[in-house]
Amino acid sequence: MPKVTFMPAGHAFEVAAGTTILVSAVQNGLQLRHDCTEAICGTDRVKILIGKKHLSEKTDNEELTLEMMNGGPDDRLACVARVLGDVTVELPE
Ligand code: FES
C-alpha cells in the first residue's frame, strides 16, 4: 500500500491506493481544514515535497482553483489529489 508522510510532524501512514490526501490525513487523526471537497474553495492546499508523480492527475477544477490562487507546481488540493504511490506532503500550519 502507498505510504503518505505528513510534514512537518513526519507522521506516516499506509493508505489504500486511490485514497485522497485529505482522507489520508483526517482518517489518521490529522487536522486539515477543508470546506467544499470539490477542488473549488482551495482551503486544503498542500505542498508535495516528494513523489508528486505518485498522485492522480489534476482535475479541471483543481487546475483552475490552483491557478486562481497562484499555486506553484508542487501545490495540490488535498480533497481531490489521490495517492497512487509513496508521497510526502507538507501540511499548512
Ligand atoms: S476542500 Fe475545497 S478545494 Fe479541497
Into which percent range does the helicity of residues fall?
A: 10-25%
The secondary-structure class comes to alpha+beta
CATH class annotation: Alpha Beta
Low-confidence stretches: none
Cα radius of gyration in angstroms: 12 Å
Distance between the termini: 27 Å
Question: Would you identify the CATH H-level superfamily?
Answer: Beta-grasp domain
User: What percent of residues are in strands?
Assistant: 15-25%
What topology, given as strand order, has the largest sheet?
2-1-5-3-4
The name of the CATH topology is Ubiquitin-like (UB roll)
What order do the helices and strands follow? EEHEHEE
- DSSP, total strands: 5
User: What integer is the average pLDDT?
Assistant: 97
Overview of the molecule:
The protein is built from two helices and five strands, in the order ββαβαββ. It is 16% helix and 24% strand. The protein is an alpha+beta fold and 93 residues long. It has a single domain, classed as Ubiquitin-like (UB roll), CATH 3.10.20.30. The model has no long low-confidence stretch (mean pLDDT 97). The protein has a five-stranded mixed sheet with strand order 2-1-5-3-4. The protein has helices at residues 21-26, 60-68; strands spanning 3-7, 11-14, 45-50, 75-77, 87-90. The longest helix is centred in the C-terminal third of the chain and has 9 residues, at 60-68. The chain is globular and about 30 Å long. It binds FE2/S2 (inorganic) cluster (FES).
